[in-house]
Design goal:
- By secondary structure, the chain is mainly α.
- The protein has 6 helices and no strands.
- The protein has a domain at 22-48.
- It has helices spanning 2-9, 29-38, 55-58, 61-71, 94-104, 113-117.
- The radius of gyration is 41 Å and the shape is flat.
- Residues 94-111 form the WH2 domain.
- One of its GO terms (molecular function) is actin binding.
- It holds the Pfam family WH2.
Amino acid sequence: MQVVDELRRGVRLKKINFSRAPIEYELTPYEILMEDIRSRKYNLRKVMVNGDIPPRVKKDAHAVILEFIRSRPPLRKASERKLAPAPLKRVSCPREQLLDSIRKGRVLKPVHPKLKSRPLFQG
């Protein structure tokens, strides 16, 4: 829209010389292979062993993954597993007990509305 507005106001476009050849880019091996596959330059042949497709080729990826999972040793039941012993609680000095109680904080008792309205100091 901006270019069209500027053209309406009288801006002239500069002519460009297209005498240079366009830049050519070299394809990567992957792009070359993909181009060959798209153009069907090569025909793939089935691999046959003794007149039949090998069993490893017949399986799909899902079956191969499931077979790998099944070949692993089974997990032990949770009831059979042994847990590491719980860390021993160290006996703390009175200073540590005080700091722990401060860190835990304390739940304050709720104040009744009647007590809130009373003045603290009378004098």
